[in-house]
Protein backbone atom coordinates (compact mmCIF):
# COMPACT_ATOMS: atom_id res chain seq x y z
CA UNK A 1 0.00 0.00 0.00
CA UNK A 2 1.23 3.43 -0.89
CA UNK A 3 1.70 5.90 1.93
CA UNK A 4 0.04 9.22 1.37
CA UNK A 5 1.57 12.35 2.88
CA UNK A 6 -1.34 14.25 4.37
CA UNK A 7 0.74 17.32 5.53
CA UNK A 8 -0.65 20.55 4.15
CA UNK A 9 1.35 22.28 1.40
CA UNK A 10 2.93 25.58 2.46
CA UNK A 11 3.33 26.73 -1.16
CA UNK A 12 -0.43 27.46 -1.43
CA UNK A 13 -0.37 29.90 1.60
CA UNK A 14 2.53 32.08 0.40
CA UNK A 15 1.69 35.01 -1.91
CA UNK A 16 2.91 34.78 -5.44
CA UNK A 17 5.91 36.94 -6.43
CA UNK A 18 3.77 39.08 -8.77
CA UNK A 19 1.27 39.86 -6.02
CA UNK A 20 4.04 40.86 -3.60
CA UNK A 21 5.58 43.18 -6.14
CA UNK A 22 2.22 44.83 -6.80
CA UNK A 23 1.65 45.38 -3.08
CA UNK A 24 5.04 47.04 -2.70
CA UNK A 25 4.37 49.29 -5.70
CA UNK A 26 0.97 50.30 -4.35
CA UNK A 27 2.45 51.10 -0.94
CA UNK A 28 5.25 53.16 -2.51
CA UNK A 29 2.78 55.06 -4.70
CA UNK A 30 0.62 55.86 -1.67
CA UNK A 31 3.66 57.20 0.21
CA UNK A 32 4.62 59.37 -2.77
CA UNK A 33 1.11 60.79 -3.01
CA UNK A 34 1.19 61.66 0.67
CA UNK A 35 4.59 63.35 0.36
CA UNK A 36 3.49 65.23 -2.77
CA UNK A 37 0.40 66.50 -1.00
CA UNK A 38 2.56 67.78 1.85
CA UNK A 39 4.92 69.51 -0.56
CA UNK A 40 1.98 71.02 -2.48
CA UNK A 41 0.54 72.39 0.76
CA UNK A 42 3.88 74.03 1.62
CA UNK A 43 4.23 75.40 -1.91
CA UNK A 44 0.72 76.85 -1.83
CA UNK A 45 1.46 78.57 1.48
CA UNK A 46 4.64 80.11 0.08
CA UNK A 47 2.84 81.17 -3.11
CA UNK A 48 0.04 82.81 -1.17
CA UNK A 49 2.59 84.69 0.93
CA UNK A 50 4.53 85.91 -2.12
CA UNK A 51 1.55 86.96 -4.21
CA UNK A 52 -0.25 88.34 -1.16
CA UNK A 53 2.72 90.59 -0.42
CA UNK A 54 2.60 91.79 -4.04
CA UNK A 55 -1.06 92.71 -3.64
CA UNK A 56 -0.42 94.57 -0.39
CA UNK A 57 2.70 96.30 -1.70
CA UNK A 58 1.21 97.57 -4.96
CA UNK A 59 -2.00 98.58 -3.18
CA UNK A 60 0.02 100.54 -0.62
CA UNK A 61 1.97 102.32 -3.36
CA UNK A 62 -1.26 103.23 -5.15
CA UNK A 63 -2.68 104.73 -1.94
CA UNK A 64 0.60 106.60 -1.30
CA UNK A 65 0.59 108.18 -4.76
CA UNK A 66 -3.04 109.19 -4.34
CA UNK A 67 -2.09 110.87 -1.06
CA UNK A 68 0.85 112.58 -2.80
CA UNK A 69 -1.55 113.93 -5.43
CA UNK A 70 -3.77 115.53 -2.81
CA UNK A 71 -0.74 116.93 -0.95
CA UNK A 72 0.77 118.38 -4.15
CA UNK A 73 -2.53 120.02 -5.14
CA UNK A 74 -2.81 121.66 -1.70
CA UNK A 75 0.81 122.80 -1.96
CA UNK A 76 0.21 124.41 -5.37
CA UNK A 77 -2.88 126.25 -4.13
CA UNK A 78 -1.19 127.54 -0.97
CA UNK A 79 1.84 128.71 -2.95
CA UNK A 80 -0.39 130.51 -5.46
CA UNK A 81 -2.12 132.36 -2.63
CA UNK A 82 1.21 133.59 -1.21
CA UNK A 83 2.54 134.60 -4.64
CA UNK A 84 -0.63 136.53 -5.45
CA UNK A 85 0.33 139.24 -2.95
CA UNK A 86 2.26 142.33 -4.05
CA UNK A 87 5.97 142.49 -3.16
CA UNK A 88 6.93 144.45 -0.03
CA UNK A 89 10.22 145.90 1.18
CA UNK A 90 12.28 143.15 2.82
CA UNK A 91 13.18 145.31 5.84
CA UNK A 92 9.49 145.97 6.53
CA UNK A 93 8.66 142.27 6.18
CA UNK A 94 11.34 141.03 8.61
CA UNK A 95 10.59 143.86 11.04
CA UNK A 96 7.00 142.71 11.25
CA UNK A 97 7.78 138.98 11.07
CA UNK A 98 11.41 137.80 11.50
CA UNK A 99 10.61 134.45 9.85
CA UNK A 100 8.11 135.22 7.07
CA UNK A 101 6.37 132.39 5.20
CA UNK A 102 8.33 130.88 2.36
CA UNK A 103 7.57 132.42 -1.06
CA UNK A 104 6.59 135.76 0.46
CA UNK A 105 7.26 138.31 -2.28
CA UNK A 106 9.82 140.96 -1.34
CA UNK A 107 11.94 143.70 -2.91
CA UNK A 108 15.36 144.77 -1.60
CA UNK A 109 17.90 147.33 -2.77
CA UNK A 110 21.62 147.45 -2.18
CA UNK A 111 25.04 146.64 -3.56
CA UNK A 112 26.01 143.15 -4.70
CA UNK A 113 29.29 141.83 -3.29
CA UNK A 114 30.64 139.85 -6.24
CA UNK A 115 33.93 139.10 -4.48
CA UNK A 116 32.02 136.68 -2.26
CA UNK A 117 29.94 135.15 -5.05
CA UNK A 118 29.24 131.42 -4.50
CA UNK A 119 28.24 128.73 -7.00
CA UNK A 120 26.01 125.92 -5.74
CA UNK A 121 25.74 122.68 -7.64
CA UNK A 122 25.98 121.17 -10.11
CA UNK A 123 22.24 121.56 -10.67
CA UNK A 124 19.80 120.87 -13.47
CA UNK A 125 17.79 123.84 -14.76
CA UNK A 126 15.04 124.72 -12.24
CA UNK A 127 11.54 123.38 -12.81
CA UNK A 128 9.63 125.58 -15.22
CA UNK A 129 12.75 126.66 -17.11
CA UNK A 130 12.47 126.73 -20.92
CA UNK A 131 13.90 123.62 -22.59
CA UNK A 132 17.54 123.90 -23.59
CA UNK A 133 18.37 123.71 -27.31
CA UNK A 134 19.72 120.39 -28.52
CA UNK A 135 23.41 120.04 -27.75
CA UNK A 136 23.46 122.63 -24.94
CA UNK A 137 24.81 121.84 -21.48
CA UNK A 138 21.98 120.68 -19.21
CA UNK A 139 23.68 121.14 -15.83
CA UNK A 140 24.99 124.26 -14.20
CA UNK A 141 25.11 126.30 -10.99
CA UNK A 142 22.97 128.49 -8.80
CA UNK A 143 24.64 131.86 -8.34
CA UNK A 144 24.42 133.18 -4.75
CA UNK A 145 25.71 136.69 -4.04
CA UNK A 146 25.61 138.78 -0.83
CA UNK A 147 23.66 142.03 -1.04
CA UNK A 148 24.40 144.93 1.32
CA UNK A 149 21.57 147.40 1.80
CA UNK A 150 21.28 150.47 3.97
CA UNK A 151 19.00 148.80 6.49
CA UNK A 152 19.37 145.10 5.74
CA UNK A 153 21.87 142.65 4.25
CA UNK A 154 20.87 139.33 2.76
CA UNK A 155 22.07 136.44 0.63
CA UNK A 156 20.51 136.51 -2.85
CA UNK A 157 20.05 133.59 -5.25
CA UNK A 158 20.42 135.43 -8.55
CA UNK A 159 19.47 132.44 -10.73
CA UNK A 160 20.91 129.53 -12.71
CA UNK A 161 23.82 129.51 -15.14
CA UNK A 162 25.02 126.63 -17.38
CA UNK A 163 28.46 125.21 -16.68
CA UNK A 164 29.89 126.61 -19.90
CA UNK A 165 28.56 130.14 -19.22
CA UNK A 166 30.15 130.78 -15.81
CA UNK A 167 32.67 133.19 -17.31
CA UNK A 168 29.75 135.20 -18.75
CA UNK A 169 28.03 135.82 -15.39
CA UNK A 170 26.96 139.46 -15.27
CA UNK A 171 28.21 141.39 -12.24
CA UNK A 172 26.35 144.71 -12.04
CA UNK A 173 27.98 147.48 -10.06
CA UNK A 174 26.39 150.14 -7.94
CA UNK A 175 22.90 150.15 -6.50
CA UNK A 176 20.61 147.38 -7.71
CA UNK A 177 17.00 146.50 -6.93
CA UNK A 178 16.16 142.81 -6.56
CA UNK A 179 12.60 141.54 -6.63
CA UNK A 180 12.15 137.99 -5.42
CA UNK A 181 10.70 135.61 -2.87
CA UNK A 182 11.76 134.47 0.57
CA UNK A 183 13.26 130.99 0.59
CA UNK A 184 14.37 128.74 3.43
CA UNK A 185 17.64 126.86 3.68
CA UNK A 186 17.86 123.49 1.93
CA UNK A 187 17.92 120.22 3.84
CA UNK A 188 20.87 118.10 2.65
CA UNK A 189 19.96 114.65 1.38
CA UNK A 190 21.30 111.43 2.83
CA UNK A 191 24.02 111.25 0.17
CA UNK A 192 24.75 114.98 -0.11
CA UNK A 193 28.40 115.96 0.10
CA UNK A 194 29.41 118.47 2.78
CA UNK A 195 30.07 122.01 1.65
CA UNK A 196 33.75 122.93 1.48
CA UNK A 197 34.11 126.74 1.77
CA UNK A 198 37.90 126.64 1.61
CA UNK A 199 37.74 125.13 -1.88
CA UNK A 200 34.67 127.11 -2.89
CA UNK A 201 32.60 123.94 -3.28
CA UNK A 202 28.94 124.23 -2.32
CA UNK A 203 26.54 121.37 -2.97
CA UNK A 204 23.48 122.59 -1.08
CA UNK A 205 22.26 125.92 0.27
CA UNK A 206 23.15 126.41 3.93
CA UNK A 207 21.93 129.96 4.51
CA UNK A 208 23.53 130.50 7.92
CA UNK A 209 26.86 128.88 7.02
CA UNK A 210 27.12 130.56 3.61
CA UNK A 211 26.27 133.97 5.09
CA UNK A 212 29.22 133.60 7.48
CA UNK A 213 31.46 132.49 4.61
CA UNK A 214 30.42 135.66 2.73
CA UNK A 215 31.12 137.80 5.83
CA UNK A 216 27.44 138.72 6.15
CA UNK A 217 27.59 138.87 9.93
CA UNK A 218 24.51 141.10 10.26
CA UNK A 219 22.44 139.42 7.55
CA UNK A 220 18.84 138.39 8.05
CA UNK A 221 18.66 134.58 8.41
CA UNK A 222 16.91 133.86 5.14
CA UNK A 223 17.52 133.66 1.41
CA UNK A 224 15.97 135.85 -1.26
CA UNK A 225 15.50 134.10 -4.60
CA UNK A 226 15.38 136.65 -7.39
CA UNK A 227 12.50 136.37 -9.85
CA UNK A 228 12.55 137.45 -13.47
CA UNK A 229 11.00 140.74 -14.54
CA UNK A 230 9.61 141.74 -17.91
CA UNK A 231 12.34 144.35 -18.41
CA UNK A 232 15.23 141.94 -17.76
CA UNK A 233 17.68 141.87 -20.69
CA UNK A 234 17.71 138.69 -22.78
CA UNK A 235 20.69 136.39 -23.00
CA UNK A 236 22.16 137.47 -19.67
CA UNK A 237 23.45 135.03 -17.06
CA UNK A 238 22.54 134.05 -14.41
CA UNK A 239 18.89 133.62 -15.37
CA UNK A 240 16.30 133.90 -12.55
CA UNK A 241 13.03 132.02 -12.58
CA UNK A 242 9.72 133.70 -13.25
CA UNK A 243 7.30 133.98 -10.34
CA UNK A 244 4.79 131.81 -12.20
CA UNK A 245 7.33 128.97 -12.51
CA UNK A 246 7.56 128.74 -8.72
CA UNK A 247 4.37 126.68 -8.75
CA UNK A 248 5.92 124.20 -11.23
CA UNK A 249 7.31 120.88 -10.07
CA UNK A 250 9.38 118.22 -11.78
CA UNK A 251 6.53 115.83 -10.93
CA UNK A 252 3.28 117.69 -11.52
CA UNK A 253 0.10 116.64 -9.64
CA UNK A 254 -1.49 114.77 -12.61
CA UNK A 255 1.56 112.48 -12.81
CA UNK A 256 0.83 111.25 -9.28
CA UNK A 257 -2.57 110.10 -10.54
CA UNK A 258 -0.84 108.26 -13.39
CA UNK A 259 1.47 106.55 -10.92
CA UNK A 260 -1.46 105.71 -8.63
CA UNK A 261 -3.39 104.19 -11.55
CA UNK A 262 -0.36 102.12 -12.59
CA UNK A 263 0.11 100.67 -9.10
CA UNK A 264 -3.64 100.09 -8.71
CA UNK A 265 -3.67 98.14 -11.99
CA UNK A 266 -0.76 95.98 -10.82
CA UNK A 267 -2.56 95.43 -7.51
CA UNK A 268 -5.73 94.26 -9.29
CA UNK A 269 -3.71 91.98 -11.60
CA UNK A 270 -1.87 90.46 -8.63
CA UNK A 271 -5.15 89.89 -6.78
CA UNK A 272 -6.63 88.16 -9.85
CA UNK A 273 -3.57 85.89 -10.12
CA UNK A 274 -3.93 84.91 -6.46
CA UNK A 275 -7.63 84.13 -6.91
CA UNK A 276 -7.13 82.03 -10.05
CA UNK A 277 -4.03 80.18 -8.85
CA UNK A 278 -4.97 79.30 -5.29
CA UNK A 279 -8.74 79.02 -5.24
CA UNK A 280 -10.07 75.55 -4.33
What is the C-alpha radius of gyration, as a whole number of Å?
A: 37 Å
**Strand-residue proportion:** 15-25%
Helix and strand content put the structural class at alpha+beta
Order of helices and strands: HEHEEEEEHEH
Concise overview:
This protein is α+β, with helices and mostly antiparallel strands and 280 residues long.
Report on this structure.
- There is one protein chain.
- The chain is α+β, with helices and mostly antiparallel strands and 280 residues long.
- 38% of the residues lie in helices and 17% in strands.
- The chain has helices at 17-83, 90-96, 207-213, 253-278, and strands spanning 88-89, 105-112, 118-123, 140-148, 153-162, 175-183, 223-226.
- Strands 2-4-5-7-6 form a 5-stranded mixed beta barrel.
- α1 (17-83) packs antiparallel against α4.
- The radius of gyration is 37 Å and the shape is elongated.
Which properties best describe this structure?
280 residues, alpha+beta, five-stranded mixed beta barrel, 38% helix, disordered N terminus
Task: Describe the secondary structure blueprint for this structure.
Layout: H1 17-83, E1 88-89, H2 90-96, E2 105-112, E3 118-123, E4 140-148, E5 153-162, E6 175-183, H3 207-213, E7 223-226, H4 253-278
Parallel strand pairs: 1-2, 5-7
Antiparallel strand pairs: 2-4, 2-6, 3-4, 4-5, 6-7
Amino acid sequence: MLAVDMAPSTARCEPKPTQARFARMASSFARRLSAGASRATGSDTLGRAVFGSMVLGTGGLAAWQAQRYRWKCDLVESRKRVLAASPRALEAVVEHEPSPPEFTRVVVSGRLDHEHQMLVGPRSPPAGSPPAPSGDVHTGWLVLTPLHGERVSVLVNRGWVPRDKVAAIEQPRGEVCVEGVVRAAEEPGSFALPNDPERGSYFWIDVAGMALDAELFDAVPLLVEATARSDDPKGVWPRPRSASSLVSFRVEPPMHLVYAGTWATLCAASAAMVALRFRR
